[in-house]
Amino acid sequence: MAMWQGAMDNRGFQQGSFNSFRSSSSDEDLMDIPGTAMDFSMRDDVPPLDGEIEEDKSYNGGGIGSSNRMMDFLEEPIPGVGTYDDFNTIDWVREKSRDRDRHREITNKSKESTWALIHSVSDAFSGWLLMLLIGLLSGSLAGLIDISAHWMTDLKEGICTGGLWFNHEHCCWNSEHVTFEDRDKCPEWNSWSQLIISTDEGAFAYIVNYFMYVLWALLFAFLAVSLVKVFAPYACGSGIPEIKTILSGFIIRGYLGKWTLIIKTITLVLAVSSGLSLGKEGPLVHVACCCGNILCHCFNKYRKNEAKRREVLSAAAAAGVSVAFGAPIGGVLFSLEEVSYYFPLKTLWRSFFAALVAAFTLRSINPFGNSRLVLFYVEFHTPWHLFELVPFILLGIFGGLWGALFIRTNIAWCRKRKTTQLGKYPVIEVLVVTAITAILAFPNEYTRMSTSELISELFNDCGLLDSSKLCDYENRFNASKGGELPDRPAGVGVYSAMWQLALTLILKIVITIFTFGMKIPSGLFIPSMAVGAIAGRLLGVGMEQLAYYHHDWAIFNSWCSQGADCITPGLYAMVGAAACLGGVTRMTVSLVVIMFELTGGLEYIVPLMAAAMTSKWVADALGREGIYDAHIRLNGYPFLEAKEEFAHKTLAMDVMKPRRNDPLLTVLTQDSMTVEDVESIISETTYSGFPVVVSRESQRLVGFVLRRDLIISIENARKKQDGVVSTSIIYFTEHSPPMPPYTPPTLKLRNILDLSPFTVTDLTPMEIVVDIFRKLGLRQCLVTHNGRLLGIITKKDVLKHIAQMANQDPDSILFN
Q1: In angstroms, rounded to a whole number, what is the distance separating the alpha carbons of residues 378 and 601?
Q2: How far is the CA of 507 from the CAs of 279, 403, 406, in angstroms?
Q3: DSSP string for 686-751
Q4: Most buried of 46, 98, 371, 457 (most Cβ within 10 A)?
Q5: What is the per-residue pLDDT for 562?
């Protein structure tokens, strides 16, 4: 995923000027101000603090009329103060504090008038209204994507002359000249060879269909990658690694914007229709989060508060999974288990409501015409037996091995893409992979069909009327008990299907490694489920035939008599799909619930749980990271994983900046620096903020001020206040410092000063510091020694230290 190179070039990652709001802000080592020194001796000659200043005429800021020239312009809020630069982390504590203040103010005003009471009620209701809108929009877009992708997938093979807008299935539904056995063949549906050379028989017709299939696949892929490259580079990939990072507090401007939503919706249809080994389920989470972010701008409560907005995005992610799998409860659990960083109880309720509305909307659209939310919904009726836990656990082992193998190989390929010339030619890469996929896929009917249809076929429980090759059994029975078919010997079609599925498995395993991470929307859920479903179906058919021919074996004779329906191969496919998806993503609870909602069978939860846990244990033994965490680390995002324990015995002084022999910490003094001094520090450094101390000699901490707030406040003062010049004194105290007569007006910036920054002592264990960063969502923490400022630890420093302790490259953390 090399999309960051262009973003870094265009978004000011280089050293920026003072006047640039998009200048690069860094939390890294704060450097020395020339001429300063840190003195830790216990001295008493420090300037007085605010409360120690006597209110007399001799301390009024400098002589006659000076009190009238004091620039306390920040009593009114300034646009931009309190906001964040791109590719920086939000301050969770400050955002939650601002929301509490806003809520307290609305509550107090609601007692004063009826209008204020109505405003208070509407403010409380706005969150539920927003969830309703997100659910409606997400469900509608998912329905549109499903219908369009189904139609365009069939377009590669032919068109419906009875109505161009019909896909193959709907075209033959409306036909009066179709039989049940040949329900996919009707005169209204014409293959490309029928349209071009008026025949569907012979080698030349096969070549024509082959050529048109590859041509359409290349056209769809070219349109997808071109639209992403030109209009919305952020629309590529799955989106879940970035959404996890955004929900942890990172700012990526434009990633959830309207252009990303429009292009991702269009290109997702094109990418799925091209036949590449990818799915739409992961990108649907990105689409739903885009909907949530855009709709947040309609409500002040969410537009102006980054922490509240992330609560909405957590609920939107739940709605995305709800419409992707038709699993509202699984969507809520997925958001809680996999993507959310902060998930209070209120967000749980709202996520449930958003997922409910999204699923209801999609069900109303009925994109597949089967009154279901997904194409591969299935119901099983045969109970499973205790012995079958053994093959289910074997499928779990396979899923864990596949997950670990896929993550390692895919990350290696993506790293090669980022570090070599390959990353500079995304269009060529997509076209080459598409051409290889299409050329290899067409001869095999199981690779030629869409992956969702393949999974549906593999999950299917064979009945008497099924015409699929997977159901081509020899019927040697007179009647069935309870309407259930007994186990039967496999026919020629089943053996042929097994060989084709084995080849499909190899192709899916290999080609998915190179497909995931390209510059097109690409989900991983469906390809992973397909790999597992194929392996499961192969094992299931093998177990079925073993039980049929050897029902007198000790492992079968107690529960499987001759002529009984003992083994359900479709159930093995479902368990295998869950195992492989769990091995790749490391999901457990949400995965089992999603698969349960897909099948509607409570009795199959135990097999699913056994396979999911086994796959996670096996995959974790070979590598601790899931695919999304691995891509987060590959891209250098500042994501602090809440699930991992920090077990090393290091101290805050081992991690803080500056280190020994480093330049001293860059600080601002509370009342002795001029505008020119502060502007000079800002222009010469790239730090996100600066500690404010009483004086450089004492290093007694007053607070912390953000770089962006300083820039905006000073520029605003220069524009709106007369007399502010480079020699004007900036002070962060409550009262103006004593000034000689006829000096320029002073500039009070106390309102942008954080008076309660988090501090730890230099001997605080790092495991405590890491916990503080995780649980409070801090950007930085100041380190003190005997009450005096000693250094600073930023989130980036913590991540680098964790990487170093894990024998990983600490320089892989790129952002702040």
Answers
A1: 9
A2: 16, 16, 13
A3: -BSEEEEES-TTT-BEEEEEEHHHHHHHHHHHHHHSTT--TTPEEE-SSSPPP--TTPPPPEE-GG
A4: 457
A5: 67
In total, the chain counts a number of residues equal to 816
Q: How does pLDDT run across 501-554, given as a tens digit for each residue?
A: 999 999 999 999 999 999 999 999 999 999 999 999 999 999 888 887 777 777
Of 360, 350, 267, 275, the residue nearest 315 (C-alpha): 350
Any idea which of 37-41, 97-101, 452-456, 483-487 has the lowest mean pLDDT?
37-41
Q: For 711-730, what is the mean pLDDT?
A: 85
Closest CA relative to residue 303, chosen from 130, 185, 424, 155:
130
| Contact (Cβ atoms closer than 8 angstroms) between residue 311 and residue 295 | no
- HSE-up (13 A, CA, CB side) for residue 146: 27
- List helix spans (H) across 442-586: 445-448, 451-459, 492-515, 525-549, 554-557, 569-585
Residue with tokens 């997808």: 224
| Helix/strand/coil for 615 | helix
Residue with tokens 């993506």: 414
The label of the residue with tokens 């790749």 reads 584
Q: Is 655 helix (H, G, I), strand (E, B) or coil?
A: helix
- Per residue in 593-621, pLDDT (tens digit) is 998 887 776 778 889 999 999 999 999 99
Among candidate residues 332, 758, 395, the one with its CA nearest the CA of residue 543: 395
Indicate the DSSP class of residue 221: H
